[in-house]
Structure formats: C-alpha cells, structure tokens
Specification:
single chain, alpha/beta, inorganic pyrophosphatase (n-terminal core), Diaminopimelate Epimerase, Chain A, domain 1, 3 domains, 6-stranded mixed beta sheet, 5-stranded parallel beta sheet, 19 helices, about 20% strand, globular
Length: about 525
C-alpha cells in the first residue's frame, strides 16, 4: 500500500480489509482508486480520436460568422450539456441560440419540425448534445440544406449512423471503454475548444454523471474526484443554491441537485423550460436567484403532485403480483409515481396517463431485481405501439382500449416471474465502529454510484429494548455515542414487538442538526 495511506488505516486495518473483501479488490487496486488525478493528467489520458475535426468545425463556423444553434434534451444530462456549450461560447464571446425541447410538445431528440425551423432561421451549424445519434432523417435534411451538424451524444449507436459532419461519442470516438454522459462529452469537447480545463464546466459535467447513472469507473470516476476535491463554497452560485448546506458530492447531486433540475422538464410544457439554461449561464446573481426560486417552486409542485396521488385513494390489490394503474397526471411525473409505488409495495409498477395529442396511454414502469421490464414488454409487444428501456425501468405506449388486457397479461407475467429477494452482501460492523474515522475510511473508497455502490453494513444483535423512538413511535432515533446514532425511518416500535435482538442493514452518513454534525447508521432494512 502507498506510504501516505498507511497512517490513515493502521488503526482500522481489520475494517479496511473487510472493505477490500466486500469490493473484491486488492490493496494495489485500492491505491489505483486513489491515484493522483488532476486536470492535466485527465486531459492527457482521455481524448476523442476525432476531436480535431470537431474543433475545426466550430472554429470554421465562428470564423465564417455562421449562426450556431445548440439542441439538447429536457433531462439533467441534456440541460447540463446545453449549459456547458452556451457557457463555452460565452467565454469565446460568440452569441449562439439554443433549445431545450419540451417533453410534451417536442419529445426526445431533434425532429423534422425543429430541423425545418433551423433552415428558416438560416442556421449554419447545429450542435446536438445528449441526442442526435439516431436522428438520421432530420440530420440528413439539415445537411441537404447546407447546415453543418456536430453530434455530441452517448446513447447506443444504431447500425445506420446519421450523416453528421462529426460525431463525438464515447465508443465511436474511442474515448474510453466505459460510457459517459452527454454533458461529459460536451465538457471534454470544451476543453479542446477553449484550450483549458474549465472548473465550472467540469462541475456541470459531474452533475450529469450522477444524474444519468453513469458507471463510476475510468473517465467518470476521475472527473468526479477532480471536481469534488477542488469544489469551493461560494465559487459557483447556481450550484451552491441547488445543494443548499450539503457538501457538493454524489449524495447532494443525487438527492437534491438532479431532482430539482429534472423537475423543470417534468412540469414545464412550453419553451419557458429554456430558462433553466439562463440559471446556469447568467452572470447576474440577481437573475440566477430569480430563476432558482422558479426551479424550487417547480420542484415543490413535482413533490406535491407525487405525494398527493400516493396519499390518495389508489386501490392496490394485494392479490395481484404487479401494479398497473391509470392516473390523471403529467407524463413527466408517472415515472416518479411508478418508482414510489414499486418501493412501497415491493412489486413491479407501471403507471399510465392519457396523451390526448397522440390519443394513447403513455406508461412508465419500475421494477426490482428479478423482474425484467424489457422481457415483460417483449411478452406484450402485440399490445404495444412503442416501448423501450432496460431491466429495471422502461416506458411504453398503448391504445386506451387495450388497457384492461394489458393489465391482465402484465400481471400474469408477474405471477410467472415473481421478484425473488436476493440477500445483499454486507460488511459486519461493530456498534463502536460507527465513528467519523470509519466514515473517513469508507470515503476513501468513493465516490459511490452506478456499478460502485456505497457499502452496506450489518449491525448484529442489537437489543430491541435499548432502541429509542420518535414521539409518534414510527421512527428509530437512538443515540449510541456523543456524536453517533442509529436512525431508521418508518421502522416503528410495533414492527419490532416481540423481538429480543435484531440485525440491521444500512449505510453510514454524516448528518447535521442545528450546526452539530454526527455520524449516523441509517437503517435500510431489518435483516
């Protein structure tokens, strides 16, 4: 092990090796995870093989004074990508136009109406970020009308690629063996256009890596480590507003920042969605604060809409192995509702809402390990107008008259493919190890995220009689030391009635109450 790490872990050697075993890595692997990374080494290691052509395309457009238009997407990744590019051109003192499409009116990706509008607007260069890799017809139309096209995308590439002038893509451009977000593609592109690693643009890219659930390996992990270690409070006003009093890390991005950004695309139906770009690119603190208040209000609307529905009169049959319902809610909210229902009832959930423009029911599905959403959709494809997704989440469209048949067959599939709860690997933890020193050691294995999850610990043989509860007896709140405690939300005293001892699975986190920090073992489940 590297000399600088020895002092940190000499007192916690046993726990350190438990962590190594949990992640199935060696001490050399651990040192590699903690290798020195800096902007220069990062740029030297990660480079698109066709970056020169992409930079030349933009430089020529600027030299010829062409109109440049940036086309993005309505989720956090697309919004970060557009913001990075708009700010990049702002640094170059070159005015551009941009579009974050409406989920409701435009849908995902550049389309023919938008391409036709670019021709009318005499656009000279269109830059697609977080979309474009499948937009064969719109891009063909743009090129036929003398508009150059640069695609900065990360989605799966089809066999027939669009006829763009240049495509920057993690795999096609041989950036890395791991995928990354669309905004990260835009960020690395900005490094070569600006000829330096911009701290603010890298911060926006880091948000997209977590929000788009990119694997925390290679490029993604290294970029997060650089950004997190160099972040200074008060330096980037928009990001400080979004995260509040939390430190800027993967937790604040996943729990606070990304949901707020995504709420804009979920709630707003018209072109005012583009105000989110002004929030990230404006140099006026007053304007940024105004836009933040707008974002915060939309986020509250998003929370209230989901909460009111879940607390309402939704009839969930205990006899069914799945949840299939229709709601009168915005299409942008149904995925959140499906996820909440799945988490609450522990079974696959698909939530539909009616889209009057298409005269279809649009559905969003969420599931747990053991029930494959795509396999379920394949089994019902004769009822589908369109569908897609991955094993744990997906979306689909069906005709209204097919809803009851869909519900029946989806539930039959769920009966034949029940969710089988697999035992999660965990690390034995002594109650005396719930300390700041333990948390610091765990942090050396971070950042945590997709394909590199935060470690799950097991507190064994906790005496039920020693536990303390909230006033309503619905939550465990037990002090175990001066600055340490066990917390279990929605674990009531009644749930543990009749037990002498229990084992808790959970994670460690730092919590702050009235400016006092403590280490908290946060219970995720009773083993």
């Amino acid at each position: 092990m590297a000399t600088e790490n020895v002092a940190i872990f000499c007192k916690m050697k046993d726990l350190f090796h438990r962590l190594l075993d949990y992640y199935s890595i060696t001490e050399l692997d651990f040192d590699s995870l903690n290798k020195d990374v800096n902007p220069q080494s990062f740029v030297n290691e990660y480079r698109f093989n066709n970056i020169k052509e992409a930079v030349e395309l933009v430089n020529n457009a600027i030299k010829c004074n062409k109109k440049i238009h940036i086309y993005g997407d309505y989720d956090a990744d697309g919004i970060m990508g557009v913001s990075i590019l708009v700010k990049m051109f702002d640094y170059l003192n070159y005015e551009v136009t941009y579009c974050v499409p409406s989920r409701y009116k435009d849908g995902y990706g550049i389309n023919m109406p938008k391409a036709e509008q670019m021709v009318k607007d005499n656009i000279g260069l269109c830059i697609c970020v977080d979309n474009g890799i499948s937009a064969v017809e719109p891009i063909k139309y743009l090129r036929e009308n003398n508009i150059d096209v640069l695609v900065l995308d990360h989605h799966e590439a089809p066999e027939a690629l669009p006829n763009a002038n240049v495509i920057l893509h993690p795999f096609l451009s041989k950036l890395s063996e791991f995928s990354t977000s669309g905004a990260s593609v835009a960020f690395l592109f900005s490094v070569y256009v600006l000829k330096h690693f911009d701290k603010y643009l890298s911060t926006l890219a880091s948000i997209s890596i977590i929000s788009d659930m990119m694997p925390l390996k290679g490029y993604n992990r290294d970029l997060l480590r650089i950004v997190f270690s160099n972040y200074k409070e008060g330096e980037f006003y928009p990001v400080d507003l979004l995260k509040g009093n939390d430190p800027f890390d993967e937790n604040s991005i996943g729990m606070s920042i990304a949901p707020k950004i995504n709420s804009v695309g979920r709630i707003i139906e018209d072109s005012t969605i583009n105000n989110i770009i002004k929030f990230f690119t404006s140099s006026s603190k007053e304007d940024v604060l105004t836009y933040y208040n707008w974002i915060n209000e939309l986020n509250l609307q998003r929370k209230e809409a989901s909460k009111s529905l879940l607390n309402g009169d939704i009839e969930i049959s205990n006899d069914d192995n799945s949840i299939v319902i229709q709601v009168d809610e915005k299409e942008g909210l149904i995925g959140l509702i499906a996820n909440s229902l799945m988490s609450k009832y522990k079974k696959p959930a698909i939530v539909f809402t009616y889209n009057p423009e298409q005269d279809l029911l649009k559905g969003s599905c969420r599931s747990q390990e053991g029930f494959n959403v795509v396999e379920a959709f394949d089994n019902l494809k004769d009822l589908m107008i369109a569908y897609g997704g991955h094993s744990l989440a997906g979306g689909c469209s069906i005709k209204k008259e097919n809803f009851n048949e869909f519900k029946k067959r989806f539930n039959n599939f769920a009966i034949k493919h029940p969710v089988i709860k697999a035992e999660k690997p965990s690390i034995p933890l002594l109650i005396t190890e719930v300390t700041f020193e333990t948390f610091e050691l765990i942090s050396k294995f971070g950042p945590f995220g997709e394909e590199w999850k935060k470690p799950i610990f097991n507190l064994e043989n906790i005496r039920v009689g020693s536990l303390k509860y909230s006033k309503d007896l619905n939550h465990i709140i037990t002090q175990i030391g001066t600055n340490s405690k066990i917390t279990g939300f929605n674990i009531s005293k009644e749930m543990l009635f009749g037990k002498d001892v229990v084992d808790f699975l959970g994670t460690l986190r730092v919590s702050t109450y009235k400016s006092i920090k403590s280490i908290e073992f946060l219970i995720s489940e009773i083993k």
